[in-house]
Amino acid sequence: MYHLSLKQNISSVNSIPNLEKVILRANTSKPETLSNLSLALQVITGQFPKKNYAKRPLAGFKLKKDQLLGAQITLRKGKMHSFIKNLIFIILPKFVDFKGVPKKNLDTQGNIHFGLTQFFLWPQCEVSYEVFRRPSGFHLSLISKGDLKKKVMIYSYLGLPITEEEIEG
After folding, report:
1. Are residues 54 and 63 in contact, defined by beta-carbon separation less than 8 angstroms?
2. Ranges for the Large ribosomal subunit protein uL5 C-terminal domain (predicted)?
C-alpha cells in the first residue's frame, strides 16, 4: 500500500510558498478626489485605508513636504483571501481585454505588481456608480514568502493568469 506525502521534496514547511499580504495603493494628484478613492478602497476591502503623505519636497512633481498623496491598505489572512477570490473569479473576467498579468510584472523577490483601472467593476461599487464612475484606479502588490523559484507557482495555483509575452495596450 502506497501513501502519498507532501514531504517528498520539501525540506521544511516554511519553504512552501504562500501569499503573505496584499497591498492596495490609490494615488491622486488632486486632494479633493482622495475621499472618493478612500471610500472605494474601504468599500472593496472592508478595511479603513491609511493616508500617505510626501516625505520630502520634490520640485519636479510640484510636491510639498507632508502633502497628501493617496491611500493604502494592507490585507492579510481572511480578508486577503476573500479579496483575492473576488479579484480572480469576479473582477478580472469582467475586463474584456484582460489576457493576464505579464511575467515582467514580477520583481526580483518574486512578488507581483499590477494596476486596475476601474473601481465600479467591483460588486460593492456597482450600486454607487455615480461616485465611482471616474476612471481612477489603484495599484495591487501581491507579496508572497517562500522559495524564490517556486513563488510563480503560488500565483498560478490561486488562478491568476501570468503570461509570458508582453501585452500591448
Report:
1. yes
2. 69-151
